[in-house]
Design a protein that fits this description.
Layout (H helix, E strand, L loop, with lengths): L7 E3 L23 E2 L2 E2 L2 H5 L2 E4 L3 E12 L17 E15 L4 E3 L3 E2 L5 E11 L1 E5 L1 E10 L4 E7 L2 E5 L10 E4 L8 E5 L9 E4 L8 E7 L14 E14 L6 E6 L4 E5 L4 E6 L3 E6 L1
Length: 286
């Protein structure tokens, strides 16, 4: 039999649900309350934050591995241990992947069939930048970072760094009295916390048993030691269900669940900030 591996990314129809606070992997998530498509203002502004899926979520991906056991975490003097992993996809120069609900996209690059076996973990090497595009309506007027106010808010085209020493992007949002066309805001992530932290874990993603640990790494693949040291991000994913390859396997389908892909929060001055959150990779075989 000739095995045919399809490289398809499919974002399933997840409802606008859970995510995290300011860090990539705060496991104590707060769901945005959304009624008939309208967001409750109290969570991101009065209570500090909530999270949901954006209209579009964009990452730049380089490599993906399937692993028969958990990979060894990188350290400041060594890269991630991938001895039990097989590289099943790569684009050396990086491929920009933009995923949305209910859309299927073809992915460029080299896809390789893993050996037969049971794979419990995955690893993805991505850039430390996240594109967020979102237009939304609140139940009460909200003030944006640009000083505008209204019940309709959206991301602003541009980029900004989420870094240590409480550094947050300064121009992510705009609001008004009528619907706004969103721009793509690119968050540059150089820490997982307000003080430098190169490692973070999110558990029970989207109510599943899946988890992901993110590692900010330097250009050598070692764990970064400060904001300026960060070059890329490696995500190690523990699958909710193992991925099995047998002689009969002909198709690999990879899904991105970005129900936790967007954080919205108060910048400390009652102004709305858009930021990134983790994604869940779901892999199935036929």
């Amino acid at each position: 039999m000739t095995n045919k591996i399809r490289n398809i990314l499919y974002l399933a129809a997840f409802s606008l649900i859970t995510s995290l606070s300011l860090s990539f992997a705060d496991s104590h998530v707060v769901n945005c309350t959304i009624t008939s498509g309208v967001f409750d203002k109290s969570e991101p502004i009065d209570n500090g934050y909530c999270a949901s899926a954006p209209n579009a979520y964009e990452v730049v991906a380089y490599e993906m591995y399937l692993c028969t056991s958990a990979p060894t975490a990188p350290t400041t003097t060594s890269s991630m241990g991938l001895d039990n992993c097989f590289k099943n996809w790569e684009v050396a120069a990086g491929s920009t992947l933009s995923v949305q609900q209910n859309q299927t996209i073809d992915v460029p690059g080299t896809m390789s069939r893993p050996p037969n076996g049971t794979y419990t973990h995955g690893v993805m090497l991505i850039d430390n930048t996240f594109g967020i595009t979102m237009a939304m309506e609140f139940d009460e007027a909200v003030t944006a970072q640009d000083g505008t106010s209204g019940v309709y808010c959206a991301t602003v085209a541009g980029s900004g760094e989420y870094g240590s020493s409480n550094s947050i992007p300064s121009a992510t949002s705009t609001c008004g009295a009528s619907a706004i066309t969103a721009g793509k805001f690119v968050e540059i992530l150089t820490t997982f916390d307000s003080t430098f932290d190169a490692t973070a874990t999110a558990d029970n993603l989207n109510g599943t048993s899946a988890s992901i640990t993110g590692y900010l790494i330097d250009s050598s693949g070692n764990l970064a030691e400060n904001d300026a040291d960060v070059d890329k991000l490696m995500g190690a994913i523990s699958f909710a269900s193992a991925v099995n390859f047998t002689d009969l396997t002909t198709t690999l389908t990879m899904s991105f669940n970005v129900g936790e892909g967007m954080a919205i929060y108060n910048n400390g001055s009652n102004r709305l900030v858009f930021g990134s959150g983790p994604f869940q990779a779901v892999i199935t075989t036929d």
